[in-house]
Amino acid sequence: MKSVILFETKTGTSRKCVEIIQNNNNISEVYKVSSFTGDLKNYKNIILVSPIYMGQINKQIVKHIQSGNQNMQLVLVGTNTKPYNETIHNTFDKSTLERIKITHVGGAYNFDKLNFLQKFIIKKMTGISETTDLLKYDVLKSITC
Questions:
Q1: Which domains does the chain have, with CATH numbers?
Q2: Which pLDDT score is estimated for 86?
Q3: What is the pLDDT of the chain when averaged over all its residues?
Q4: pTM for the full model?
Q5: Could you say which DSSP state residue 92 is in?
Q6: Which of 57, 110, 119, 127 has its CA 20 to 30 A from that of 10?
């Protein structure tokens, strides 16, 4: 059976993560979740990559996870680790959490791709005022199908 990666991204960090996972696993099928029209039942290994924005996982990614496929891995991309567990437990029920593998790979602040308000909020909340890469590359490279 085949492997697939579905992802969503706003500033490109999730796409960067996808490229690392794709190259390390020789996965040829990669789609933005919003343009995927296939059937996940045709895949043995499914990796879903979602940014966390405002404490939320992408709704289309969540919908695919709740579809019930057993062979799913969720890769979460986000810089704020404090509410990480809260986000997961507010999004998924216990049975879903037991059947999927979840990996947090850090994130990045891409100031060149943010609007003024987003930059202002990030600077106020974190003290960071320039593009900063906080990805956990060792964790990304350890993700396998």
A1: 2-141 (3.40.50)
A2: 86
A3: 91
A4: 0.90
A5: S
A6: 127
Confidence check: pLDDT of 48 > 70: yes
- Given a contact cutoff of 8 angstroms between Cβ atoms, the answer to whether 55 and 87 are in contact is yes
Contact present, 32 and 8 (Cβ < 8 Å): yes
Could you tell me which residues come within 8 angstroms of residue 134 by beta carbon, excluding any fewer than 6 positions away?
79, 106, 107, 108, 109
Place of tokens 């590359």: 137
Q: With cut-offs at 50, 70 and 90, classify the pLDDT of residue 69.
A: low
Is residue 32 within 8 A of residue 58, CB to CB? The reply is no
Between CA 87 and CA 127 the distance in angstroms is 23
Q: How high is the pLDDT of residue 126?
A: 85
Q: Which residue has the tokens 């900063």?
A: 132
Distance from C-alpha of 124 to C-alpha of 79, rounded to nearest angstrom: 15
Give alpha helix (H) positions in 6-49.
13-25
